[in-house]
Design goal:
single chain; 283 residues; D-Maltodextrin-Binding Protein, domain 2; 5-stranded mixed beta sheet; 22% strand; globular
Length: 283
């Protein structure tokens, strides 16, 4: 049985992976998917891909695009969630801030450099017309550490996926002052170049199994209750999230990739619009 070390965040977007593992859909195809969880997100997964500690990752589109441009020896092998990611913009519940516009030039907590919370803070600032050179970053690691940073006034705001952090808003820990959706697909699937070279057949079978699950995911009986229970969500919130979320079963387009690259170039997060082979075009 071939093992795939697959990295991902502990969020509801990855429920299809867990269903496939638990229903033995991968093992029935002689594939052992070893799930490796990364609570601190895309920056940590990029580091693990570079170090060869994982073979593949379910990873934010902007994060892996930036890192491949900057030398990560990996490729995007398929789109995963084609709908935009809805980034909630959060402050401490007791904060005097009530709108995103009030956060200009304020300190932003990020999980780590190269993470979605890092990149999207800059994308939001650019969209708002703020001077991105004034952004002060406070690297915190996890959401729990972001809670501490905001509570202790070590940072002023923190961006994280809307529904993942909604329980914290409901509990009066965070106050959400707005949302900022990505102008591109939320998540893609990436693999290291070494793993692609050695295991193309295994990758193809893995994607076939996963795509069959994601294509029918919303029709799974009482899926909203299962997601709510696993991820500490309210059923009505999961229903809203499902209505906003689309899973993909094909490769991300080169046009969309160029859109991401152009934004990263504008933010000086990459040096040029690279013609490097970011996408795996055929298995």
């Amino acid at each position: 049985m071939q093992t795939i070390r697959l990295g991902g965040v502990p969020e509801h977007f990855n429920m299809p992976i867990h269903l496939a593992i638990e229903q033995e859909l991968f093992s029935n195809k002689d594939i052992h998917v070893k799930w490796v969880e990364f609570p601190d997100g895309t920056g940590a997964m990029n580091k693990a891909l570079r170090a060869g500690k994982i073979d593949m990752a379910i990873i934010l589109t902007e994060g892996i695009t930036r890192d491949i441009a900057n030398g990560n020896p990996s490729k995007i092998i398929q789109n995963y969630v084609s709908s935009p990611l809805r980034w909630g913009v959060h402050v401490d519940a007791k904060s005097a801030f009530n709108t995103i516009d009030e956060l200009e030039s304020k300190r932003v907590a990020i999980s780590r450099m190269g993470s979605g919370s890092h990149i999207m803070a800059y994308v939001q600032a650019l969209e708002k017309g703020w001077d991105t050179s004034t952004l002060e970053l406070v690297e915190v690691g996890t959401v729990d550490k972001a809670i501490e940073a905001l509570s202790n006034k070590e940072a002023d705001y923190f961006m994280w996926e809307h529904f993942t952090t909604k329980p914290l808003v409901d509990q009066g820990i965070f106050k959400r002052v707005g949302d900022f959706p990505t102008p591109w697909s939320s998540f893609v699937i990436a693999a290291t170049n070494d793993f692609i070279a050695e295991q193309k057949t295994i990758i193809k079978v893995f994607l076939q199994v996963l795509n069959a699950v994601t294509a029918q995911f919303k029709q799974v009986n009482e899926i909203e209750k299962s997601v709510a229970e696993r991820y500490n969500q309210k059923v009505e919130d999961v229903q809203q999230w499902l209505s906003l979320t689309s899973w993909a079963q094909k490769q991300i387009s080169e046009e969309e990739l160029k859109t991401v690259q152009k934004r990263l170039l504008e933010l000086k997060m990459i040096d040029n619009i690279s013609e490097n082979d970011f996408l795996l075009k055929k298995l």
